[in-house]
UniProtKB/TrEMBL annotation:
InterPro entries: Restrct_endonuc_typeI_TRD_sf, Type-I_RS_S_subunit. Keywords: DNA-binding, Endonuclease, Hydrolase, Nuclease, Restriction system. Coiled coil: none annotated. This is Restriction endonuclease subunit S. GO terms for molecular function: endonuclease activity.
Length: 401
């Protein structure tokens, strides 16, 4: 059967980035910057997530400039599920430095393809190992460098690695095509909100549209989704822009930890209280949630006053650029950790004062595109499941001749 080797045997080195005094704004074109952790935690490599640093400080660290084909890994994060996640850099502007919250894994080119290494880092076997060796307490978790090198990975010949990468890339092209259509629909949705609010000069506090905000709790739970008839507690990833992903939950087996008062009900408007900077404060309506799913302490139920506001319009308006800027300004937390927004700050968000009739009309116009978006998301889920299954199968045991 195919053997296993320590990942360190396939690497030339593991590099840690640098902590530099940095300004909060991104670097102008041609100037030096250091990557934010959010460059690696938003699903894809996001080079725009960077902070400006002085040329004098950067020049002394130019050896840590990020380059194309680099394999970057989250070293420290407030969310253990993000620690150890990796991204392969395809294109990157010049003069961006590696942060001290990240590793750069440098493969031995005779043994390991960088893109194959990226697939390994996302495989179930490696993710299980990472989870078992993470160190730290609530709020700050880290992956030691020695544990990265000790990860047990399949010993796959270089030619076969490239075949697996090519098969994965074919799925990526299909997924990208669906995502482009989704993005066009999101742009149209944003334009719809902009048209609805264009003539609205007055803003009101979001709290005036709410009866109350209810918080959940996070009981001890296993990191696997609840099965039929079981209770689960939501992960923050259950709240997506424009849709509720019920699969993102953790099973709760101890009956003493189950509280039906926190159960998600059809029509609930759920918001993330804690998440990464770009995702904190997102909200979605849970239209047909399965039974026995509870709010976690990182998710909130916004109980809307239906005589004043439509929950689906509130979901939409919370994505408006002006509101998102308020959310980011109100969110607290240090670099590398989860951002949090308090209930008082949520109540105080200023939203366009749109009449209930106009809200209903906007939601009705959105209905067709929302149905199309839901269909596309289901396609993406299916494609990604097939893609991941294919990769896991190709990484699995093989007879040794």
């Amino acid at each position: 059967m195919r053997g296993k080797v320590p990942l360190g045997d396939l690497l030339q080195k593991v590099e840690v980035g640098v902590a530099l005094a940095a300004q909060s704004q991104p670097p102008p074109e041609g100037e030096w910057g250091v990557l934010r952790l959010s460059a690696l935690t938003t699903g894809k490599f996001a080079s725009e997530q960077a902070k400006r640093v002085s040329a004098a400080d950067a020049s002394r660290r130019s050896g840590l400039e990020v380059r194309g084909n680099d394999v970057l890994v989250v070293r420290v994060n407030g969310s253990p599920s993000l620690v150890g996640s990796g991204r392969v850099v395809s294109e990157v502007p010049p003069r961006l430095l590696l942060s001290d919250l990240m590793f750069r894994l440098v493969p031995d080119p005779a043994k390991l393809d960088p893109k194959f290494l990226g697939l390994l880092l996302g495989s179930e076997g490696v993710r299980r190992q990472v989870k078992s060796v993470i160190r730290g307490t609530s709020g700050q978790f880290q992956l030691p460098q020695r544990e990265v090198k000790a990860l047990s990975v399949p010993d796959v010949p270089l030619a076969e690695q490239r075949q697996i990468v090519a098969a994965h890339a074919a799925f990526e092209r299909r997924i990208a095509a669906v995502e482009r259509v989704l993005q066009k629909l999101r742009v149209a949705e944003a334009a719809l909100v902009a048209r609805t609010t264009a003539g609205t000069q007055v803003r009101v506090k979001l709290g005036s549209w709410l009866r109350r905000i209810e918080a959940g709790k996070s009981p001890l739970a296993e990191d696997t989704p609840a099965g039929e008839g079981e209770w689960g507690v939501l992960k923050v990833s259950a709240v997506q822009r424009g849709w509720f992903d019920a699969v993102e939950n953790k099973v709760v087996r101890d009956p003493a930890l189950i509280n039906p008062r926190f159960e998600v009900r059809p029509g609930d408007l759920i918001m993330t209280r804690a998440n990464t900077e770009d995702l904190v404060g997102l909200a979605c309506v849970a239209h047909k949630p399965p039974s026995r799913l509870m709010l976690s302490d990182k998710t909130l139920r916004l109980v809307v006053d239906h005589s004043i506001a439509d929950p689906e319009f509130v979901e939409l308006v919370l994505t408006e650029p002006g509101v998102r800027r308020q959310v980011k300004a109100a969110a607290t937390g240090t670099s590398g950790s989860m951002k949090n927004i308090g209930q008082d700050s949520i109540q105080g968000l200023l939203v366009p004062d749109v009449s209930l009739d106009d809200q209903h009309r906007t939601v009705a116009v959105r209905a067709a595109s929302k149905a199309r978006m839901d269909s596309l998301r289901k396609q993406l889920v299916k494609l990604r499941a097939i893609q991941q299954g294919m990769v896991e199968d190709l990484l699995g045991p093989r007879p040794v001749s």
